[in-house]
From TrEMBL:
Its main location: cytoplasm. This is Phosphoribosyl-ATP pyrophosphatase. One of its GO terms (molecular function) is ATP binding. The gene is hisE. It comes from Afifella marina DSM 2698. Residues 91-112 are annotated as: Disordered.
């Protein structure tokens, strides 16, 4: 277990994006705009899905890291804070529909 947190990564992304440093991948990507950031996220998500279907656990681990990083970059570029995403997730916790789904066995959701 590491002491890495997504909050710290989101903060680093904000700092690097504001730096204007040409050596910063984050700054270069954010500088290309929301559409480019969204395209990169989509590509990384597809690569993660392919790794999963291929049962490539090491590949999936790396691609999942790429997805999380590029999601945070896209959120920054689009002006949505990670706190807002967390608040949305927190608000879903305890929602009756979700709780009910969780308490049912997965097979209860299968179409017959
Ligand atoms: N977590 C990451 C991270 N994950 C992936 N990447 C970069 O994402 C890129 C994805 O690779 P690709 O081959 O798909 O992209 P590319 O061909 O270089 O770029 P495109 O021309 O396709 O846009 C690589 O250049 C990776 O280095 C990351 N770059 C930065 N970080 C974090 O962001 C921090 C700040 O980085 P800089 O902004 O570079 O200072 C770093 O310390 C890390 O913690």
């Amino acid at each position: 277990m590491t002491d890495f947190t997504l909050e710290e990564l989101a903060a680093t992304i904000g700092e690097r994006a504001a730096s204007g440093d040409d050596n910063s991948y984050t700054a270069r990507l954010v500088g290309k705009g929301v559409a480019k950031c969204a395209q990169k996220l989509g590509e990384e998500a597809v690569e993660a899905a392919i790794a999963a279907v291929s049962e490539d656990k090491e590949g999936l681990t790396k691609e999942a890291a790429d997805v999380l990083y590029h999601l945070l970059v896209l959120l920054h570029a689009a002006g949505v804070s990670f706190d807002e995403v967390k608040a949305e997730l927190a608000q879903r916790t305890g929602q009756s529909g979700l709780e009910e789904k969780r308490s049912r066995p997965a097979s209860a959701n299968w179409k017959s």
